[in-house]
Structure formats: C-alpha cells, structure tokens
C-alpha cells in the first residue's frame, strides 16, 4: 500500500441467511477511509440491498478502478451453492462461507489487501455442512500458522480471551502456563503495535470464584496464573492479577488498565457486550494482517428485515482501516531506518 493510499480491505459478509449481507451493504454506503472489496455471493448481496430499499450493482474486483462510479461496488464473487433464505441458514452454503474467508485471508497474505473485515457466521451451520469449525479466529490462525488472541473492544473496555470457543469443561485443562504466557505476549504486542499504547497495563482475571480464595476454591491461580504473571512482570510487563472476575470490571478499576484478560469466553464477553453492544468490535491479534469483525452474531431473527444495526460492522471497517494505516506507517519507518 502506498503511504498516501486508502487501505484496501476485504469485506466478508458471512452467513448469507443472517444479517451480514445487509450490514455489508450499509457499510459499503458508509464513507469509510478505506477501499472495500466484498468477498461473497453477489445475488445474496443484491437481495440484501433490496431489504434496505436500495440496489447494489457490483463490478468485478479486477476491473479498472477508474471506471467505477460512486455506486460501483466491488466484488470477488464466491457463489453460494443454493439461494439462501433470510433467517434460515442452509448447510449446503457452508463451503462458500468458509471459502470466502479463506480467499480473503489468502489475498491478505499475498499482499493484495491490507486487512479483513468480517460479518457474522453461523458456527453450527458450518459444522452441519461437514466442515469442522469453531470460529473464524481459529480458522485464520490455522491458515496463517500463527498463534492468535481474540480481543473485543469498545470505547469502555478491551477484553481479551485466554481461551476462545471451548466447552467450559475443557477450559481449565487448556489454561497451561505456556498458553497463558504466549497469550499475554501477543496481547501486549497488539496493544503496543495496533493501539499505540507504549507500556500497556493489563488486568488478568483468575479462573475460579474469588480468584481461587487462596487455593480453597481452585488452584489454577496459584499453580499457573500467578507464576506466569511474576515471570512476565520480571520482563517489564505491567500486569495485575490474578483478580477476582466479579469486581475487576468496576469502572474505577477499568480506568487503571488498558485491557482485561479473561480466562474464558463468557467470563469476559457479557461485560463487554453489556457495556456497549453496538459499537464493539472483535479483533484477532497476532495475524500477519489486521482482522476485525462484528461483535455480534447472525441475528437470524432480524435477517432480511432491514432493521439490524450496522454500527458494529462500520466500527469494524474503521478500526481495520486505522490499524492498517498504523502498520503501514511502521513498515515505512522501519524501511527508512533500515536503509
Ligand atoms: N463474529 C461472529 O461471526 C459471531 C457469530 N456468532 C454466531 O451467531 C449465531 C447466533 O448467535 P446468537 O447467540 O443468537 O447471537 P446474535 O448476536 O446473533 O443475537 C443475539 C441478540 O442480539 C441481536 N442482534 C445481534 N446483532 C444485531 C444487530 N446488528 N442489530 C440489532 N440487534 C442485533 C439479535 O437480534 C438477538 O436478539 C451463532 O451461530 C453464533 O456462533 C456469534 C457471535 C459472533
Ligand atoms: N463471541 C465471539 C465470536 O464468536 C466470534 O468469533 P470468531 O468467529 O470471530 O472467531
């Protein structure tokens, strides 16, 4: 990307029967500081546009950009197997949903795009379609061969997760010292690199009630979490914890930190979503390119009605564009200092 060019982002709407396609149309109409190219099924997007009382005519992504008018939406066609019905996901379309994500990831790694913005997918439908899938975070991590961290953020709080889409029964076993240390290092680097926080303060939650109550309510805090924090503090990281999760999100405590690391999905995300559902976004830290998603799901109850709120997808576009610019500036500076 040239230093003055707008970031070029791949926008993947997600499950065709959900609200993703209509939110993608709304995001394309938003004046973003980015060039957006949709990876998805053109017919679905055209029907989604109708639900918003508008039309969408797409140009192939490799068309001469100078020919595009303001309505010249750009598309990498990833056709669905069957026409989708809003509100009713069809497992036969699982392959194209996942293919669109993979193609966008491939294009980023090839340097053709500066980042990926994703709408919601329906995890159960992808699995019903015969594709083992726990989340796009995990899919992109495996594709890039990187360990990553999921972090959701709004103006009030940033919440990262030490484990993501795991049954609760498996969480304690997954919380090894190695995993926790790598998670904190990726989170720390992401806050520094993508958010410009030079010396981030991170609050780390315990796993058990009252952070284990000195070992009387569980020993993970004593045996795993505290030793990792001690090691990383010795490396200079500003970490508090392990903290009792029930009070760690009090506003005066949040004011002292840049992010909270929760041990599992539903320890951290309900607080984040309660504090501001509409503008929150979901980031994947640790990938070679920025990936930002909506914080919400497919909202099948609203799909095709044109009433779903596009704020999270618009915030995701803006966040991804901002991070793409930060990364580009860093690369340019590095190039200059290496020269
Ligand atoms: N980024 C992603 O791909 C995510 C995908 N999901 C998937 O979505 C599916 C459905 O998940 P649910 O738990 O039902 O959560 P959901 O977020 O789809 O719906 C929960 C509630 O929030 C409302 N809602 C969601 N998005 C909205 C929007 N943009 N505007 C207004 N209201 C909105 C819905 O109408 C519903 O009442 C699941 O398969 C889940 O795995 C869930 C979270 C994130
Ligand atoms: N709750 C967040 C979520 O499910 C989104 O995960 P992912 O599909 O972005 O990995």
From TrEMBL:
Its main location: cytoplasm. Keywords: Cobalt, Cytoplasm, Magnesium, Metal-binding, NAD, NADP, Oxidoreductase, Pyridoxine biosynthesis, Zinc. A divalent metal cation binds at residues 165, 210, 265. Its cofactor is Zn(2+); Mg(2+); Co(2+). It catalyses: 4-(phosphooxy)-L-threonine + NAD(+) = 3-amino-2-oxopropyl phosphate + CO2 + NADH. It is found in: Cytoplasm. Belongs to the PdxA family. The active site is located at the dimer interface. Homodimer. This is 4-hydroxythreonine-4-phosphate dehydrogenase. It comes from Luteimonas salinilitoris.
């Amino acid at each position: 990307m040239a230093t003055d060019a707008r970031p070029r982002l791949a926008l993947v709407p997600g499950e065709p029967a959900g609200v993703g396609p209509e939110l993608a149309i709304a995001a394309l109409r938003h004046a973003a500081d980015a060039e957006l190219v949709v990876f998805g099924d053109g017919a679905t997007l055209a029907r989604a546009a109708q639900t918003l009382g508008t039309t969408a005519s797409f140009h192939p992504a490799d068309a001469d950009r100078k020919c595009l008018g303001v309505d010249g939406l750009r598309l990498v066609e990833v056709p669905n197997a069957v026409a989708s019905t809003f509100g009713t996901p069809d497992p036969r379309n699982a392959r194209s949903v996942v293919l669109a994500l993979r193609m966008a990831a491939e294009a980023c790694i090839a340097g053709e795009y500066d980042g990926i913005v994703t709408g919601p997918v329906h995890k159960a439908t992808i699995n019903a379609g015969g594709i083992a899938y726990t989340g796009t975070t995990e899919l992109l991590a495996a594709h890039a061969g990187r360990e990553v961290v999921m972090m959701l953020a709004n103006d009030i709080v940033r919440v990262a997760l030490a484990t993501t889409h795991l049954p609760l029964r498996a969480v304690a076993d997954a919380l090894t010292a190695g995993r926790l240390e790598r998670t904190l290092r990726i989170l720390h680097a992401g806050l520094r690199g993508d958010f410009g926080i030079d010396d981030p303060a991170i609050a780390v939650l315990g796993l058990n009630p009252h952070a284990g109550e000195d070992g009387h309510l569980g020993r993970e805090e004593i045996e795993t979490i505290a030793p990792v924090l001690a090691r990383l503090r010795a490396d200079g990281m500003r970490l508090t914890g392990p903290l009792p999760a029930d009070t760690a999100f009090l506003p005066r405590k949040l004011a002292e930190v840049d992010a909270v690391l929760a041990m599992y999905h539903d320890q951290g995300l309900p607080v984040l979503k309660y504090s501001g559902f509409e503008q929150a976004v979901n980031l994947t830290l640790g990938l070679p390119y920025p990936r930002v998603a909506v914080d919400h799901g497919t909202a099948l109850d609203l799909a095709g009605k044109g009433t779903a709120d596009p704020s999270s997808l618009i915030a995701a576009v803006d966040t991804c564009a901002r991070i793409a610019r930060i990364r580009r500036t860093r690369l340019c500076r590095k190039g200059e200092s290496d020269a």
